[in-house]
Write a structure and sequence with these properties.
- Keywords: ATP-binding, Ligase, Metal-binding, Nucleotide-binding, Zinc.
- Its cofactor is Zn(2+).
- GO terms for molecular function: aminoacyl-tRNA ligase activity; ATP binding; metal ion binding.
- InterPro entries: Cys-tRNA/MSH_ligase, Rossmann-like_a/b/a_fold, tRNA-synt_1_cat_dom, tRNAsynth_Ia_anticodon-bd.
- The strands form five sheets. This protein has a four-stranded antiparallel β-sheet. It has a three-stranded mixed β-sheet with strand order 8-7-9. A two-stranded parallel sheet has the order 5-6.
- About 55% of the residues lie in helices and about 10% in strands.
- It has about 575 residues and is α+β, with helices and mostly antiparallel strands.
- It is built from 19 helices and 13 strands.
- The chain has four domains: about 150 residues, HUPs (Rossmann fold, 3-Layer(aba) Sandwich), CATH 3.40.50.620; about 130 residues, Isoleucyl-tRNA Synthetase, Domain 1 (Orthogonal Bundle), CATH 1.10.730.10; about 60 residues; about 120 residues, no CATH class.
Length: about 575
């Protein structure tokens, strides 16, 4: 039997209501959660995120959590009620502490506070602001033994106990989403200050923005969410990381086509920059005059200025988006310098180009956008076969196969007397197929070509996008051509009718009276047509005479011209059909 998603959800709810209380084995809960934990680590690895120094799980910290609650109770900042334990916010304030440091305006908001507790409005609490440290066990929920009876920890106490165990009584930086300011982070602070008898457990909080999809908060009910796995089928990890870097960390990010295209555009600018610099480093390794002229001195000063500007951006609320803008500004200046050297028939100084590229790479490494090593330039080689630990034959095989394939095809084409155009098609095919699959991007520039290494999947995607755009443009041109051809054919077929038969063939003039030229004079009732109607008919007749004469002239020149036009129209239809497949 097959069930739709809604049916499966309903069935799960029914089973949970009837049999959920019978599930008490912690191994079942652990097995279920580990499944999603492993998926999470897989996603983090695919995104290129590093592992934490310490991994903590609530289920492995239950003894510490119970001990943490006991200390808070002993310090007179919590009370026991019906086998549950609640934090006493009134006692906390009376002891000279501030409750709700991060979002004072939200204190007392039952709507926000209730998001963290299923029975927030319970009568067991002394005041509405109090919150659960330990919850009495309910049927169907996992529970652990405690001095107050079987139960489970409250949401906030888990984080306080685990963080305190690793980081102690003072934390420099605490992060989280801005929606966690209240109640979660404010309650964390209250619990920890109550535990340590201190007034400052965390020095700084960094609250990040949310990720929205096309302007809407991701929601299961709206079905507008996207998984990391799905996103990585459309974009690379670096492209997604670039998307995050060019946004303000403390503002919400809108995941939309426009924003993604902006990230892809910036990545492409950086790729082209590295390819341009690497091309010149390969072509002109320290040859010619190296004494810096005015242009070189200006660019050298510009690199130093960019270093200062990037630092200022990062010191201003970690403005990574602004730092990327400064890098791209430097990139444009380097391109201008190279172009200026070319126009003066000179060569850019490689040491200067490398200095700029090394700095850009250094910042990209800091942002997690490059895997390059110190003093290298570019995005690194983690996504290509270069730097592989395999044998030399394994590493070079894709490139050698590409050029051997080209040689075989060129030899075969020359032997068969292929045209120059056919040979050009072969070289383009190697560029777009063999080299792309090997992770090499070849860019034609006039009579020469430049190349760079990249992830084959990225190059394949870019190639497919170019082909799709080219296909769409061809379809647009063909459809426009077909429309023009069809309109012309319709006009010619109409002009093939003899003028004296033009009106007689139309149903609207059936039973009308006509003059010797076939122009209507009286309607079917025998009434003479009005002057303005006669005038219009006369004009139509004269145009028909002119068009018919032109048609006869064309027919005299080529008796099959009409049939040929129909064949051309059919050929266009075939081309359109082929492209639409």
């Amino acid at each position: 039997m097959l069930l739709g998603q809604n049916a499966a959800d309903n069935l799960a709810s029914q089973l949970d209501a009837k049999l959920g209380a019978t599930v008490t084995d912690h191994a079942i809960y652990k097995s279920h959660t580990l499944k999603y934990e492993n998926e999470f680590w897989d996603d983090m690895s695919a995104l290129g995120c590093g592992y934490p120094d310490v991994l903590v799980r609530v289920t492995e910290y239950m003894d510490k959590i119970v001990e943490y609650v006991e200390v808070i109770v002993a310090n007179k900042f919590a009370y026991v009620a019906n086998e549950s334990v609640y934090f006493d916010t009134r006692a906390f304030r009376e002891a000279g502490h501030r409750y709700g440091k991060l979002n004072p305006a939200a204190v007392g908001s039952s709507m926000l506070a209730s998001e963290s507790e299923s029975n927030f409005d319970t009568s067991e609490k002394r005041t509405s602001c109090d919150f659960a440290l330990w919850k009495k066990s309910k049927p169907g929920e996992p529970s652990w033994d405690s001095p107050w009876g079987p139960g489970r920890p409250g949401w906030h106490i888990e984080c306080s106990a685990m963080a305190s165990d690793i980081l102690g009584d003072s934390i420099d930086i605490h992060t989280g989403g801005h929606d966690l300011q209240f109640p979660h982070h404010d309650n964390e602070l209250a619990q920890s200050e109550a535990y340590f008898h201190c007034h400052e457990w965390v020095r700084y909080f960094f609250h990040s923005g949310h990720l929205s999809i096309d302007g809407l908060k991701m929601s299961k009910s709206l079905k507008n969410f996207i998984t990391i796995k799905t996103a990585l089928t459309m974009y690379t990890a670096r492209q997604l990381r670039t998307l995050f870097v060019i946004q303000s960390w403390d503002k919400s990010i809108n995941f939309s086509t426009t924003v993604v295209n902006e990230a892809l555009g910036k990545e492409k600018q950086l790729k082209n920059f590295f390819a341009n610099v690497e091309s010149h480093l390969r072509q002109h390794p320290m040859e010619g005059v190296q004494r810096p002229g005015l242009d070189e001195k200006q660019l050298l000063s510009r690199v130093d200025q960019a270093q200062i500007q990037v630092r200022e951006r990062l010191e201003d609320n970690f403005d990574t988006a602004g730092a990327i803008s400064e890098l791209l500004s430097l990139v444009r200046d380097v391109h201008s310098y190279i172009d200026k050297c070319k126009s003066a028939s000179g060569k850019p100084q490689p040491s200067l180009l490398k200095k700029a590229a090394v700095f850009v790479t250094k910042i990209l490494i800091v942002f997690g956008l490059s895997d390059a090593k110190i003093c290298e330039i570019g995005f690194g080689n983690s996504t290509s076969q270069v730097g592989s630990t395999g044998s030399l034959a394994t590493v070079v095989a894709p490139y050698v196969e590409g050029w051997v394939s080209l040689r075989d095809k060129v030899r075969s084409a020359v032997k068969s007397g292929a045209s120059q155009g056919s040979l050009m098609e072969l070289t383009d095919k190697v560029r777009d197929e063999d080299m792309v699959d090997a992770g090499v991007c070849v860019v034609d520039a006039g009579n020469t070509s430049t190349w760079r290494l990249d992830d084959p999947t990225i190059l394949q995607r870019e190639r497919d996008e170019r082909r799709l755009k080219l296909k769409e443009e061809k379809l647009r041109i063909l459809r426009q051509k077909r429309l023009q051809k069809a309109n012309l054919l319709e006009k010619l077929e109409a002009s093939s009718i003899a003028p004296q038969e033009l009106f007689k063939a139309k149903d609207e003039y059936k039973d009308f009276a006509f003059d010797e030229r076939g122009v209507p004079t009286h309607n079917k009732a025998g009434k003479e047509l009005p002057k303005n109607a006669k005038k219009k008919l006369e004009a139509t007749y004269k145009r028909a005479v002119t068009d018919h004469e032109k048609f006869k002239d064309s027919l005299a020149k080529d008796p099959r011209f009409l049939q040929n036009m129909k064949v051309e129209l059919q050929e266009i239809d075939s081309q359109i059909l082929l492209l639409e497949q």
